[in-house]
Amino acid sequence: VHDGLARPARECHLSVPHRWRCRLGHYILKLFVTGQTPRTRRAIANLQRICDEDLNGRYELQIIDVLEHPEQAETEKILATPTLIKQLPPPLRRVIGDLSDKEKVLLGLDVWPHLPDDERDASP
Amino acid sequence: MPILPELDGAVQVLLVTRAPSPALRRLAEEDSRFELSQVGSVATAADRLRADPADVVVIDANTLQEPDEMDRLHDGLNGATLLILAEDLAPEVAPLLTRHGGAACLLPASAPAAVQAQLVAMAAERARLAAALRQRDSELEQRTQELDRSRARFQDVIERNADAILVVDSEGHICFANAMAAALFRSDRAALIGTPFGFPVLLGETTELDLPGNGSGLVVEMRVVESEWEGKPAFIASLRDITGRKRAEKDARRLIREQAARTAAEAAAAQFRFLAEAGTLLSLPLDDRETLTTLAQLCAADLADWAVVYLVDDDGMLQRIEVAHRDPALAEAARALRDYPLSPEDRHPAQEVLRTREPLLVPHVEPEQLVQMTRDVRHRELAQQLGIASLMIVPLVARDRGLGAIALVSASAERPFDDDDLAVAHDLALRAALAVDNARLFREAQEANRAKSDLLAVISHDLRTPLNAIMGYSDLLAMGVPDELSDTGLQRVDRIRMSAKHLLYLIDELLSFARLEAGHEEIRPQDVDAQSVIRDVAAVLDPLAVERGLALHIDVASSSLQLRTDPDRLRQILLNLVGNAIKYTEHGSVRLAVRLVDGSVQFRVSDTGIGIAPEHLQHIFEPFWQADRSQHAQQGSTGLGLSVVRRLVQLLGGSVDVTSKLGRGTCFTVRLPQQVEDAPS
User: What is the ipTM of this complex?
Assistant: First the structure.
């Protein structure tokens, strides 16, 4: 569960695996869009907001225009856009739509928002 | 009485035998529920059963003539239980029982009547149960069929739905896809099942998606409801192709934008036209009162329903100058409002606007605001009569002087003023204020100029009087009156005479300039020969040219050149120009030429002198202007010569211009009409 954690044992607590993953993990996100449509702009804006507010800067976001990279869309079997794929950390998840509902995006991506710093230190 | 099972209704028993059956007969007699009927052969029994179904059929084994005779009956049993009445489990009976499986059983003939009755009752019950079971079966069958039909209907609805329908599990994998979904994704249904679609996230009811795989770039509208699929939470997503609608919306938006742009352009053009018209009006040298009256009328025609122009009077009080209304029928009321008193105590909004110099916009004038703005009931009535629904007031400010204000009023609440209107009004006010101020400045400047010219005329006239005495007495001295002078004395008196002459020339020049400026000059046209005027000028100035070592050339056409003009003025013009040329030329020559060019007489004075710098060329006709002040003193001139030339040329209806190259020479060209118009005297 704690793949390659070089942290003190104190931090390796089995009861909070999700927090673990997210606190230490680095998110790799791919957003698939189709050209510069209003849908594209809306999804990018919504995602940017979520990343800023909840991923605490620990993410890599790649925006892929399927018109320019049809082969990547093929590989990922993109049926419709905007589609957001969380590549890492596992589990692989994908979300489709305008990403306007933050809670649902996080739920769909299986991401638990970061705890504030003070809370993090206080947790076992 | 034996214990019999509970049975509803009569039990029909068909007895197939040729022998009497006392046990069964007694049963029927003792228990009224049993209704016994009897036939003699299996064939008859089959016929009877077809017409009249029975619960139990009892066949006497002895009536059977061949083993498969009973088969004919079996199909016709119609749910009845078959009992074989036999003495014993005889060898020929057993195959009969097994042949008919559970449907037949043995009724031992030797058994006591009570037992036989019991067996018949049980057989009846079995028949009833079987019948009930069959009923249930058939009902179930019917229900299943109905369910199948209903399912088929639903499936049909889903399959034939114009929207693509997907069921997606909580991890975003497709569990179900209808035919339209397969078509939309250009995939087959089996391939879609299990494909990741994505966890749908949207706020509100629908969101739009792009379908890139489709090549043509479809746009779909996705609607999602939470549901279940095989007991687990899932989403039902329906996708509707809205590509056509989007395109139509885009077209509509473009159309609306174009229309809006056209409307805006038309409005801008209208504003521009209005401002251009107002600008033309305001550029006219009108008396400011008249300008503003016309402006108010223009505003009332184009910008508002009525307009009021306020000006600050000489006592610093704001006054209504003009009230103009679009509707001529209300001219009377407009006049009444114009003449209505306006005092500083009124706190009139125009006074506020002038004080703060900020434009005022009241899109909707409320009744209480009207009360505040007006002085009394009569004033209010006048405003209401003219109609006051929307109001804007812009200050008239020019060169930091508050001159007044313009109020524009819309009488209809359906046409309230907005910021655009205010911008136009503001622009207009700026132009109007400048025009008013320019008119004032122009008037003041004209008056000052006239005063200056009058002063000059008086002074130069007064200067001549003592000069006459100086010249007269120095002439007498030179003539030896009263005593003969010594050579030295004579020399000095000559100096005085020359200086006096020069002073007289300067004063004459000043006087003629002043007269021209004051507009007192008039012309006396005559028929003139240009060549003779030129020769006169040359005769006068040739000695001066010779004195300065210059050649004075005259270039005239061979035939005489006649024109009608004022010869004295023409002579003065040419004397001034040629005199100037000689004055400013050190070496070379001065040339005076005359030609008829395009119907006008063209005099040209050119020299090989010092020339005029390009930056000075535009100033040389201005009074008192000289390229170099030090030259002024040296050459002994007033700087009025060229200014007088231009005035005179204009007086004669002509024009003068100059070209020059520094160090190479200068050329003045005077064009006069061949026929000068007689000046109105």
Answer: 0.70
